[in-house]
Amino acid sequence: MTAEHQQQQHQQQHTSKVNDTVLIVGASIAGMMQALLWKAGIPYDSYERAAEVRALGSALCFNATTAQIFKFGSKGYIISRAMLYDVLRRQVHKERFHMDRRVVSISQKNDIDQGNNEGKGGVTVEFQDGSTVRGGILVGADGAYSAVRQNMYAQLKEKNLSPASDDVPLPISL
Ligand SMILES: Cc1cc2nc3c(=O)[nH]c(=O)nc-3n(C[C@H](O)[C@H](O)[C@H](O)COP(=O)(O)OP(=O)(O)OC[C@H]3O[C@@H](n4cnc5c(N)ncnc54)[C@H](O)[C@@H]3O)c2cc1C
């Protein structure tokens, strides 16, 4: 199957099954890695607050198992982060990456809340400009101060669903 054919197939899937779309927040290394989902036929859209992403840091280590996944042979590697980011970027669809889109909140709804037949659950993401998108699954790849994590955490707390261990102070001071 050619890359063009794969892309068409991906777009068809995207338009016909919006509720199956995986929404990825953050387009750095972790988000970019998630975007490879399209290779398994899973539609996605990626939302990034920056106008452009530059891979931070100098290098990272691939152990032998990870190297094989990337078809880099069977040995471990130390690879430049910028190079890895570039390899990933060349394998995803530019048009599925929505830059300058800062996520401020997320909400999840179950079938009863929806009161319609759009499928199971789903998640709605709201951006700083007030616009929203809806998808089936949300991946928070928005880094250390993740807005996705903070939103999820606040919602779990509200529903008394956060693990009790989260309220226990850390046994160490940082
Ligand atoms: C100075 C420095 C040097 C480092 N050097 C190395 C190194 O040499 N090797 C190494 O392995 N690691 C290094 N690290 C650690 C490495 O950068 C992180 O582990 C890695 O970047 C985490 O990747 P990530 O994709 O999870 O998150 P991040 O790289 O933090 O990416 C998060 C992305 O989400 C976006 N985002 C954040 N909030 C929102 C929002 N609300 N809406 C939409 N988008 C959002 C951000 O703009 C960003 O693009 C370094 C870190 C720093 C700070």
TrEMBL record:
Statement: the UniProt record of this protein carries the keyword Flavoprotein = yes
Gene Ontology biological-process entries: secondary metabolite biosynthetic process
- Entries under PANTHER family matching the protein: FAD-BINDING DOMAIN-CONTAINING PROTEIN-RELATED, HYDROXYLASE, PUTATIVE (AFU_ORTHOLOGUE AFUA_3G01460)-RELATED
Q: Which UniProt keywords apply?
A: FAD, Flavoprotein, Oxidoreductase
Q: What is this protein called?
A: FAD-binding domain-containing protein
The record's GO molecular-function terms, alphabetically, read:
oxidoreductase activity
Q: Which organism is it from?
A: Mortierella hygrophila
Would the keyword Transferase be found if you checked this record's keyword annotation? no
Q: Cite the InterPro entries for this sequence.
A: FAD/NAD-bd_sf, FAD_monoxygenase
Q: Which domain of life is it from?
A: Eukaryota
